[in-house]
Amino acid sequence: MDRQAIEEQLKRQGGTIKELSPITKFLFVICTAVLSILFGGPVYIAVISAVYIILSLFAHVFKGFFKSYFKLFVFFGLMLILISSLFQNAEAEVLLSIGKISLYKVGFIRGCRMSSVILTLAGGLLLFTETTQVQDLMAVLGKMGLSSNVVYMVVASFRSINELSDKMGQILEAQSSRGIETEGNLFVRLKAILPMLITLLLSSMVSAEEKAIALEARCFNCHCKRTSLRVNNTSRADVVTMIGIAFVTAALIAVKFIFIK
Prior knowledge:
By secondary structure, the protein is mainly alpha-helical. It is built from 10 helices and 2 strands; from the N terminus they run αααααββααααα.
């Protein structure tokens, strides 16, 4: 099998967005985060949320992305706006009153600005992880000249959350199959969580040891030139996309400082 056939087998599936370089997608995350600081507010939250949802549809990751982003939006975005709107001095302008509870306009605007930054950055990183394969990220970081230790730490941080979540689900199912109560009131849940955490800790330690052995068997600490089956070159689509992102970001920043007081 020649090199071209191998690269065709390794080609990322899921549309143009998944085929873009991780550098291009990370540039998009940074630019949207910068714009959220300048234009933060309820309108920006609506616009950036719509953009993320549309991009997830094109990348065929809508189901996984929307489930996580909706939780992020409700538990962090809306709660932060609500809490910020409640606490304000009595002389501030009231935006909405429900009985004895008053929501203040100044606090609402401040909460929207803070939520804009959090939702934009967290949502962008969430979309980045959904559309970027770990192998592509490793190839790009290695091509940038980062040491193998740094590359491994970055990649491991992306994988660790999903791995721990999967292990926790497996442990929960195993405990339930053995007749241990894991659902019910708060006391029952607290009583069941200790053995689950101990099991999770022990399994994580075993997994870390297995990874260390596997890395040593593959000469992880050798100082020779490394090769990679997956080559991540910057394509024409990456160049056009990066130029477009930079141009739109620069134009919006110019509009903010020149025309918007």
